[in-house]
Amino acid sequence: MTEPLHADAIVQYLHDHPAFFEAHPDLLVSITVPHPHGNRAVSLVERQVDMLREKNKSLEMKLAELLRNGRENDVIADKLQRWSRDLLRTRDARQLPGLVVDGLATAFTVPQIALRVWQLAPDHADLPCGAKVDPDVIALVDSMRQPYCGRNADFQAARWLPDAGTRTGSLALLPLRVGAAPQTFGLLVLGSPDPGRFDAAMGTAFLERIAEVASASLSRLTA
User: Fold this and answer.
1) How big is the CA angle at 59 (ends 56 and 63), to the nearest 5 degrees?
2) Disulfide engineering: 191 pairs with which of 14, 112, 133, 170, CB 3.0-4.6 Å?
3) How far is CA 170 from CA 76, 105, 139, 158, in A?
4) Structure confidence by residue, pLDDT tens digits, 171-223
5) Residue 172: which of 148, 151, 197 has the closest Cα?
6) Residue 81, Cβ neighbours under 10 Å: how many?
7) Which residues pair with 174 in a beta bridge?
8) In what order do the strands lie in the sheet with 186-192?
């Protein structure tokens, strides 16, 4: 008695003999399969056409998403360029802290921003951004190799934000340093009442660029 064929064996046979349906073209029309969106049966050819249509629709959606992301990235890059240009054009270094904060608030709609610089030169020691910073905060920032992005876990730096951070649902901590120096000279804090604005799952590449531009500009204030 002939052993019944298993589905895996049939799949393997068709895979090993790609010309099978060329040799038996009538099978393509006579074989029917269940329609995925109804109770009727359709030919194998019609099912293949449906599958191609679904695949094309999926590809079109992915392409539309890529185009949308590309346009959004272009807008962000343009804002970053204009912000950087304003900082570069500033001759009075004492104006830089305000330009950094105001530029981020306006261009990127960041509702809560705080800035501290702890190595100010004597000529700039009276600037508001030179307010005293707890050594533990400095030690934490020195240990950061990239920006922190996520919920407000009662960071001391969050208390620099409006209302002492009590309305801050999420934040980003951007360490300021010169190049790859291990020691930092400041910290830029971005906050939002929205817990999802600075989500831990989001990438930090854009925030790293902001930190680099801010560091390069504000380093003019340091000793």
Assistant:
1) 135
2) 112
3) 20, 16, 22, 10
4) 999 999 998 788 999 999 999 999 999 998 888 888 999 999 999 999 999 98
5) 148
6) 11
7) 188
8) 112-117, 186-192, 170-176, 148-151
